[in-house]
Amino acid sequence: MSNNPGLNEALQAALGLEQKGYDHYKQALSQAKNPLTESLFSTLADQELDHMRRIRELFEVSPSEPTKVSIPRSELEKVVRNVFEKFSKEDRSTWDLDITEAYEHAMHLEQESITMYGRFAKESKASVETAFFKALEQEEVNHFTALQNAYHYLKHTSDWFESSESETWNWMNT
């Protein structure tokens, strides 16, 4: 375990927030009614578990072992894209924003994570810790972007095509 009390507190807070995210995604999955929401929330739950595993690793290693605490870039966009490729445009036109509150709460949790990891990165004393928290922060940005795109696509599909969200994942309009 790390002998840095500040790092230990940061890691405990990170574990708590990742667990909240995981619990939220798993609970929301039971209410999901369309393939996009199911795939997105299932993938996000899996990624929160992976984040928790990697955070626990940081508890166990010293700052001289940076390879053990890296966060690989997520394949979230690829997962969502695969859902879009499985269904025709006509099929997708029947999808509704099935769990509005779950999306909104998820975006709030992801924003909270982005803020927290950004702060931890700035407060970290070791470069490996800074890099680790910056990587987690970027992962949460990716989560937020995916949620925001899916939310706007499902809530206001016609508006989505005209908005800047469609520029982020422009393949969603095919």
Provide tags for this entry.
0% strand, Ferritin, mainly alpha, 174 residues, elongated
Q: Could you give the topology of this structure?
A:
Layout: H1 5-29, H2 35-60, H3 76-86, H4 89-92, H5 100-123, H6 127-155, H7 157-162, H8 165-168
What does this structure look like?
The chain is mainly α and 174 residues long. The chain has a single domain (5-173), classed as Ferritin (Up-down Bundle), CATH 1.20.1260. 74% of the residues lie in helices and 0% in strands. The protein contains eight helices and no strands. It has helices at 5-29, 35-60, 76-86, 89-92, 100-123, 127-155, 157-162, 165-168. The radius of gyration is 17 Å and the shape is elongated. The termini are far apart.
Q: Give the uncertain stretches in residue-range form.
A: 62-68
Beta fraction of the residues?
Answer: under 5%
CATH fold field value: Ferritin
* CATH level 1 class label: Mainly Alpha
What is the count of DSSP helices, taking H or I runs of 4+ residues? 8
Number of structural domains: 1
The largest pleated sheet is described as: none
Structural class: mainly alpha
Instruction: Give the helices and strands as they follow along the chain.
Output: HHHHHHHH
Number of E strands: 0
